[in-house]
Sequence to fold (86 residues):
Amino acid sequence: MSQDVYILREHIDSGEMHLFLASKTKEDECYAKQKSICGKMDADDASKTIFSCQPENSARKQCAKVGKQVCSKCISYLYDNGIDLK
Fold:
């Protein structure tokens, strides 16, 4: 059984940061969906991971610390109880 968690990645070229929904396995590995929550970044894009495998509350706190660099559409997903904003 998997558990939904979040991964925050920073696009190497643009510096934009986007959240990805991910599934956490029993082995504590995380597998991100192919597109970011907003759909503007692909999992295959050149990026660095800011945080990985974080549950919703932890992801909110860490994104708040990062600030305005995090995509507003991605971050709003954490506060809208998972309502699809696409």
Remarks:
- The chain has two helices and four strands.
- The longest strand covers residues 3-11.
- The radius of gyration is 12 Å.
